[in-house]
Amino acid sequence: MEVNTKNFRGLSESACADVKLRAVLDHATRHFQHNRQASMDALPHREEHFARARAARFSALAHLPDLLEELERNATAAGTTVHWAADAEQARSIVVDIAKAANAKVIVKGKSMITEEIGLNPALEAMGAEVWETDLGEFIVQLAGEPPSHIIAPALHKSREDVVKLFAEKLGLHGEAIPELTMLARRALREKFLSADMGITGVNMAVAKTGSVVLVENEGNIRMSTTCPPVHVAVMSIEKVVADFDAVADVLRVLPRSTTGQRMSSYVSVLTGPRLEGETDGARETHLVILDNGRSRVLADPELRETLACVRCGACLNVCPVYQTIGGHAYGWIYPGPIGALLSTLLLPAGQTRDLPYGCTLCGACHRTCPLSINHPKALLALRARAAGGRGTLAGRTHSLLARHPLAYRLAVGAARAVDPQLEKLPRLISLAGGSGVAQFVASRRPPELKKSFSARRRAAQANKERS
Ligand code: SF4
Description:
By secondary structure, the chain is an alpha/beta fold. Helix content is about 55%, strand content about 10%. The protein has three domains: about 120 residues, no CATH class; about 250 residues, Rossmann fold; about 70 residues, no CATH class. Helix 3 crosses helix 12 and helix 22 runs antiparallel to helix 23. The site of iron/sulfur cluster (SF4) has 13 residues, from helix 15.
């Protein structure tokens, strides 16, 4: 996907004006929030489960180099070929070489943000392979030629009517109701699974102790992608490793609940090496590509390291007022919402992401919702401070100074209140001075009226009460 994060402001403005998009986002995010809340309410001792999941992820980050080496050793012992990729280009070329060696003409894929991150599909198509996304949402956005707009619901921005039209135009398939459309996609994909030469997936967790990869899904397409084709390639970023199956269980107790509100996802696959003699299914050749792509740098940063704990449940997107308003595409890359603003800023070159840390109201809903308590606002503030050279903006520094000196604060607010009623005259004065363009600009940006302060209103209310 083309990186368009530089245009975050412009894309956000267009998205804000898209009434249809707002309606779809409102419906979808409310639905996710409702299901998640109901599921969490029904989970006894949920704070304890959150703490265990957090401990599993943070412990893995604390021991990452050792766990990755252990994973390599045990995956290799189980028969999987392990590849290390420093960046997206290297990861693409590793997977393309595996596909060439397997003479892969048809490739099926399970939904994976990491293969979106490295732009894998165009590289495979360039070598002449047919690449099929098999997750229903990914299938829809692939047909539409669009990137995903949500971490777990890639076609969240599409209405049912959009999908009806898309299937008719691109596949010549006609359906109306959602179950009918799902069946049409299923039939179209079934023959691809059976004829595929290679399956590619991401990894939810990789278990250092056994060299296994764990894949969580609801549609069964990942299980088909990993068991039907003779070759399976799993692509993971370095932070996906966990120590053992206790850690997997700790994360799985909260991941599906936080993602879709399910107690457990419909399919949890644990794959350890290729099919053994006498086994009836599974790939005959398995590969694990372990990608860094800037994450070692993040890991070494104590202030921002916790971003890597994310398990991609998507819950922070659904509660974010910015995501609810602009959707995923406005973020300009594959990672949207609060965690997306963080990941994109950390993984992409600095010049491309200047505005992303500011795409946040600092309301804290993401932090409160995250099952791992990742503090997105704090991290985004740290990124803002770094972007401003550690000194903050002039307005921020002035406010900080005043906030630390109550008397100066009162004097400044009093002065602002005294000037405020006169501001209406400002455009006229500027235009008299010959600056009609500037006057127009100022007139169009009239700040909201300064209301009486809370303490003044309280004093007045108190006085009224005493009088009556
Ligand atoms: S940051 Fe937390 S809430 Fe957001 S996707 Fe990651 S784990 Fe889920």
